[in-house]
Structure formats: C-alpha cells, structure tokens
C-alpha cells in the first residue's frame, strides 16, 4: 500500500544519506553539492559497487540526471546551476530527460531544427524531440536548441534546461511492440525558459553535449552493472520452468 511504499522509500533515502556521509556513494561529487567528495580511486569505487550489489544495497538513483547531467554541470555549469540542480538530482528528488534526437535529426544530430530565440528574460523554444526516454514523468529536460540560425550547424546550437511543467510542452508516448511506452515525442510550442538556464556559452551547445555523451559512455560501461544484470538473468533462469524443469537446465537457455 501507499504507507508501505513511503516507508520503504524513506529507508532507502536514509541509507543513501548515511552511505554518502561515510564516503561510499556520490564519491566524485563535492560535499557542497551533496556528495561525499572522495579522492579519485577507480579500484576502490569498483569494489564498493560490487559489494553493494552483492548485498542488494541501494546505490545512487539511476537515471539520465545522475549519470549524464550532473557530471556535465560539474564540468561546465554555472555555480548557481550546480547548487540548484545537483543535490536534488543525486537525492532522487528530481528527474531529467534528454532532448536531443528529432524526427529528421538522429545520426546527424547537428542538423536539428528546434529553435530558441531570446524574448526579454526568456528563451522561447519551438520544435519537436523524439525518442525521449522518460519524458512523461521527468521534471526537467536538458535540450539541444538551434539559437544561432546563421552559424554553421555545429556552431549554432545551445544547451538549455527546461522545466517540463512549462506551458506549451506536449508529451506523447510512443507505444513499442512490447506494449510499453518508455520513449516519447515531445512537442515544444512557444515554451519559455529563463535565459540563464543555459549550460556553457550561447552557440557552444555541441561542445557541452560532447561532455554529456562522454559521461553517458562511462556510465553504461561499468562492470558492476553488467555483472548485476547477468546475475539477475541467471536467477530468473533458475526460477522459471520449461516443461516442468528449471529453464537454466535447457541447453538453449544456457
């Protein structure tokens, strides 16, 4: 029930806060933004992740925000952006989606057409994004927008942050053949975001996006995550049955 779910969430949050205080989680994030600020030690970090996984202990909240946006802000964000967004993101209080791909801009991302123009103290954004994971439930989006229409395509893009509750945002889930709807179309019609909600300088969004993608590659290549998925798959094969026998005994499954 709701009370049980709330109690479980509170216990997980308390555990994470204690683990941060002891230096086990959010090791590369400065203390002033809610991390534990530990010395760089890849081996120690890997051991911690493997031990936490073996104990089924909560790690940092997974998601685009913690894996991609937070390290991007630490590398390239303004001080106020770090203070406003990093802590709530690593605590799981806010979630993010990524506004990159467009219907005509997938592999050639720099050809994107979503545009942003300054109007007073705001950017006004118009365009469409597609294959946006988690957009239906995200609180914010980090978004690539063409702000310099006369510049060469890679030089005309800015990296903006957008509140997903802003008027003019229409999120439409894309139903997959599995029946789920993890991906979405996002339509932006005269969406306004403050003009200082830009990461990096105007027209340097492509450079900032490369920082984000670097951190994405780092996050999906971890051995601990792969081992965790493999162990979960083995456990599933042990419990599911085919013709009355555990699936793991089937040569095709093995």
TrEMBL record:
Residues 97-191 form the Acyl-CoA oxidase/dehydrogenase middle domain. Residues 16-93 form the Acyl-CoA dehydrogenase/oxidase N-terminal domain. Its cofactor is FAD. GO terms for cellular component: plasma membrane. Keywords: FAD, Flavoprotein, Oxidoreductase. The keyword Transferase does not apply. GO terms for molecular function: flavin adenine dinucleotide binding; oxidoreductase activity, acting on the CH-CH group of donors. The keyword Oxidoreductase applies. This is Acyl-CoA oxidase/dehydrogenase middle domain-containing protein. It comes from marine sediment metagenome. The lineage of its organism: unclassified sequences, metagenomes, ecological metagenomes.
